[in-house]
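Quick log. Single chain, no ligands specified.
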Amino acid sequence: MLFDSIPGELAKNSFRYQVSTVLKGQRADDILESIAELVDSRTVLVSYHTNEPNPMMSMTKDIRRFKLFTADTGLFVTLAFKDRDFTENVLYKKLLSDKLPANLGYLYENAVAQTLASAGNQLFYYTFPNDKRKTSYEIDFLLSRQGKLIPLEVKSSGYKTHSSLDAFGKRYSRYVGQKYLIYTKDLAKDGEVICLPVYMAQFL
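-> predicted structure:
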């Protein structure tokens, strides 16, 4: 259940994997051993929330607050659209032919997670309050490079909006290095943000 629910949990755009909605009556504390077994299977990637962003994020990660990704995005797609037998799965065929009318942000997020992990990066993310609204900002991934934090925001479209990156840069200016928006268009620059095509995430 934990494994099969990975796409659904990401599609909710929530700020963590909500264990209680997958396993009734269970909390993150109850499944830490199960998460470790999934990671050991090499089929699952865990991105931990860092409670205080700094270049040493391993010291501030919250092991009870995390997101789960599959280690293989092809497997993720199969999980996400296994509503029918594989050969009859219309949704899967539409996805492959780029005709699926859906917000695929969670799919691109998984692809970037796989790419970063394959390059040897530990996965971290961060959320913080938006003072102007009753929501929160989210930095999808945080990397540490030469004593600086490299924040990444993943988009499933060509839009260059990056309010989370801007707010994060102001809040943690002493730590922040280059900011990246990973999206589906060509390489570009928008102010202080480099807009990077998804396929170039491997070079980060």
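The chain has one domain: 6-203.
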